[in-house]
Structure to design on (490 residues):
């Protein structure tokens, strides 16, 4: 039952097309980052809760996997319309539980729509190949669904990241267990409601809430064939290793430390607005956010403009809070440590209080200059609206700094020279590169995924690449001419 202080009733698991009573007495509070109020509480489910969901998903797989793909995607055509119809409500929910601004939340739901559109196009993309390989003999390939798959998601995109996996994996014939982030479990509840309204059969998509224990149980469950994970590198490594050691297919996307290389010929105002938007958008809680800027040569005029732009980003107005009190403290500690080590804080977002939202977890945009590559702010993912400026004498030194970082999600270069852009594209060690773009997220049908410590596993999670992850290929060789002489493979 909701208590007086809770805006939403307690979160429930969703199994077999309905919300089921919680079997645990262990819950975590779901806290609004905007004002620190309690929105709901989320159950820490047991292994047995997971087991029940897997049994149901396995049963649903029998029918769903045999439903023709053209029929399966009809659900997603209807789901897309429902996402559009409920755009405002869904955006508000994302905003409430995650804290991002309404415009950012709307952009996230719009991306969910784009992801769904891609899933609707899958029948055009998954056709197998056929070839007469020998006289009267043909080989053909067909994509088959894998079975029950599980998706474990982070807090920073409560709508988009679940929709990275749900439409593609399910349209391709799998059934699924979704494990939402315990910090933002509410958007997932609306996702399953809308999919039910769109006609998704019961049991095809199930939600099991929880934290570490349930993730480990997913990695160990023999009925789950594949595990996708999106979250921090520390946990991505654990999940990838554990799921793989149990012989499951696994793809684990981790954290990031994205470097933007700014060359002296960069367009000043365009660069300044892009860098600022990249580091402060979604309060810096994007795996594609700019975290380090490598300033090559004489770019002080651009840094001045970045500071001016950063001062226009006002917490509580066009900048949301970070996810928790602990995150706010962690981010502010990074800034203080850099200052103590000799870096210069050009714009300081520490100790920010928003009037009327005194209990919210706000950090203002922060620009730190003269950061050296050995400082923690240069090396580690901060996940807040903070940019660390590292000075480099030339582009090769800048690339060496970028390459030395263990992450490899995204990198960008700001220049007006096509030749310099090409030079950086070829040498940056990251899976997604921007040229004069601060958040180089590939749009569908291009796939999303980093390199190095930002991704463990083969292929990408979205776009065309996802077809390989969510299906297995069957190769059939057929002979139709009984009269042909026996020769090689015929
Ligand atoms: P997180 O790693 O703390 O949590 C992600 C998921 O793992 C959650 O569902 C959580 O319940 C579970 N989890 C947490 N600790 C665990 C443990 N010890 N064992 C097993 N499971 C555990 O990440 P987060 O704080 O929710 O999200 C932020 C992180 O996600 C950032 O590092 C960000 O860069 C990353 N991220 C990466 C991408 C990408 O595409 N590479 C996209 C979005 C977010």
């Amino acid at each position: 039952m909701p208590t007086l202080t809770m805006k939403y009733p307690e979160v429930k698991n969703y199994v077999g097309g309905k919300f089921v009573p919680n079997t645990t007495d262990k819950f975590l509070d779901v806290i609004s980052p905007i004002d620190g109020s309690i929105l709901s509480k989320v159950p820490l489910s047991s292994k047995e809760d997971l087991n029940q969901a897997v049994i149901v998903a396995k049963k649903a797989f029998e029918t769903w996997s045999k439903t023709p793909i053209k029929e399966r995607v009809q659900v997603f055509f209807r789901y897309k319309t429902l996402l559009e119809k409920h755009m405002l409500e869904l955006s508000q929910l994302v905003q409430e539980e995650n804290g991002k601004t309404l415009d950012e939340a709307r952009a996230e739901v719009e991306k969910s729509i784009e992801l769904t559109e891609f899933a609707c196009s899958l029948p055009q993309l998954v056709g197998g190949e056929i070839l007469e390989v020998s006289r009267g003999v043909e080989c053909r390939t067909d994509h088959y669904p894998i079975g029950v798959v599980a998706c474990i998601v982070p807090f920073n995109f409560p709508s988009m990241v679940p929709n990275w996996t749900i439409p593609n994996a399910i349209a391709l014939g799998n059934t699924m267990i979704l494990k939402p982030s315990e910090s933002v479990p509410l958007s997932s509840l609306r996702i399953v409601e809308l999919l039910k309204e769109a006609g998704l059969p019961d049991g095809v998509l199930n939600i099991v809430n929880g934290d570490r224990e349930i993730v480990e149980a997913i990695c160990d469950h023999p009925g789950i064939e594949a595990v996708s994970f999106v979250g921090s590198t520390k946990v991505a490594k654990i999940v990838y290793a554990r799921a793989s050691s149990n012989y499951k297919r696994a793809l684990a996307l981790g954290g990031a430390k994205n470097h933007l290389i700014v060359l002296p010929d960069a367009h000043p105002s365009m660069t300044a607005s892009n860098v600022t938007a990249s580091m402060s958008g979604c309060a810096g809680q994007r795996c594609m956010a700019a975290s380090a800027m490598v300033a090559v040569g004489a770019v002080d005029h651009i840094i001045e403009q970045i500071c001016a732009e950063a001062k226009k980003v006002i917490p509580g107005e066009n900048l949301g809070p970070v996810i928790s009190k602990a995150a706010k403290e962690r981010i502010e500690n990074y800034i203080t440590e850099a200052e103590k080590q000799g870096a210069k804080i050009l714009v300081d977002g520490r100790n920010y209080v928003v009037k009327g939202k005194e209990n919210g977890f706000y950090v203002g945009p922060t620009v730190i200059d003269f950061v050296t590559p050995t400082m923690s702010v240069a090396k580690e993912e901060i996940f807040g609206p903070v940019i660390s400026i590292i000075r480099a004498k030339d582009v090769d030194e800048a690339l060496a700094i970028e390459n030395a970082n263990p992450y490899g999600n995204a990198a960008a270069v700001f220049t007006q020279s096509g030749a310099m852009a090409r030079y950086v594209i070829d040498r940056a060690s990251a899976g997604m590169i921007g040229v004069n773009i601060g958040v180089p997220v590939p749009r569908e049908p291009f796939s999303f995924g980093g390199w190095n410590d930002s991704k463990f596993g083969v292929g990408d999670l979205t776009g065309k690449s996802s077809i390989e992850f969510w299906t297995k290929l069957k190769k059939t060789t057929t002979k139709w001419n009984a009269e042909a002489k026996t020769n090689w493979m015929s």
